[in-house]
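User: Hi! I'm a student and our assignment asks us to look at how structure tokens line up with a sequence. Could you show me two examples?

Assistant: Happy to help. In each example below, the sequence comes first and the structure tokens follow. Example one:
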Amino acid sequence: MNHCRSIAISVLLLAAAGCREASTPGIDGALAMRYAQGNYDLGPRIFRTEGALRSAEWIKAEAERIPALAEAKGTVRLPGSAQAAFSGVRNVEIAFPGSSDDFIVVGAHHDTKFLSGVPDFAGANDGASGVGALLAMATATADFARKQPLPCGIRFVFFDGEEALVEYTERDGLTGSRDYVNMLRSSGELERCRAMVLLDMIGDRDLHVELAGNSTPALAKLVLKAAKDLGHSGGFSSGSIPMLDDHYPFLQAGIPAVDLIDFSFGPDNRYWHTAEDTMDKISAESIKTVADTALRTVWLLAENDFKDLAE
């Protein structure tokens, strides 16, 4: 299944290379930072705690305040499968309709890691930067959609439970993205999900996004093209290291997916999952660079009608 989709996206990539420049919305970096600060200020947002609930409710409230949301026919909900009530998953989705019933998922996680040695860990980069990016992307998309139709549906999904409480297993970690995929499957929407683009740890002031090695290859190449189109080639490269991240359940379900992640946070990655992951370590420019590249990727995919992605 993945092989067939990968071939289809390869065809799409060749077509995209020759098409005219897409009219793509760009985000407000300062707005993204304000959103990131607001999410960070909530404090720890550990899965299955009141902090995660506060985070989901805060994201939903901020999303509902997006000025052009109603005019763009955007909707905000807390999606979940039948198991969500038992697992404690609190995902948030901002969905926009497009000119076709197909849609792309753009995701980031809003929970933070439980660190026994850092009880107040609030994750500026590892959590809040992705939240800020997605809210700013949804704002830019709403502004665009009130003037002209989107080329396809776009769903911005804030995943809960990405971080493992102990260690990653089938029952620990990636809980929100697994639940979301299960929800798509049970609702009959899975085949309409054409691709998934994940943003994780994308605010580092010293930005270099190395696409996860287990990203769909042709989709990763399209991200690099999008970065080049926007003049950001120096900040992106293909990686060889696979990541157990929220794109993985989509890959398992046969959905092409790519993980935009800067997994080198501070000297020797020493800021990652430590008390050093604070707001002074991230920047509006970095978030904007990644978010704009992700949106450009979405537009390249959608405006070429996905070609023959059907099985």
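Example two works the same way, sequence first and then tokens:
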Amino acid sequence: MFADVELQIRYGKHMVVPEGAVLNSGATQTVFVMHEDGKFEPREVTVGPTVDGQTIIEFGLENGETVVSSGNFLLDSESRMKSAGQ
């Protein structure tokens, strides 16, 4: 016999970002934070579980910071190219 079971777990209040905002390189997880002057900063974060398309951020972001949620792989590749050229 087989059964489908659905458990509801209360995670409490946490900072979350869209799942697509987190770039996972295997060893590190990075998000891009947008600053007021229009520049983007790669920021290493510690992530928790992903629930309903939202990834819990345990460390690395402050409340109210704006993160890139789509196209962040383009920012990542551009920043890698610039650092390689220097």
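Here is something you could point out in your write-up. The chain has one helix and six strands.
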